[in-house]
Predict the structure.
Amino acid sequence: MNLLPGIGFFEIVVVAVVALIVVGPKDLPRLMRLAGRAVAQAKRMASEFTSAFNQMAREGEMEEMRKEIDALKRNNVISETRRSIEDAVRPVEKSVRSEVADINRAGAGSVTERAE
């Protein structure tokens, strides 16, 4: 990321000469340190903003992926097939259980008749 677009070597030299004349050679090193710190802080802030923006984008993508996975789970062909088979088998299973219970009752009745 270039913070100073359109500024070449010549422009930087002109700014340095003007700063040397205005500030003086005695205070110029301190001014340069302050300028360096300001530029470093601006880069850190830009980096933090970029990382926060990227994090928000990743979270948005993750939420979208979660929604898609949930939709796939709900609309799963295998689950739908299993449910329809279970729905079709349930009446047959109920009927078979009823018949088995009737047979067991009939068998238990004949055992009690023999015992008498």
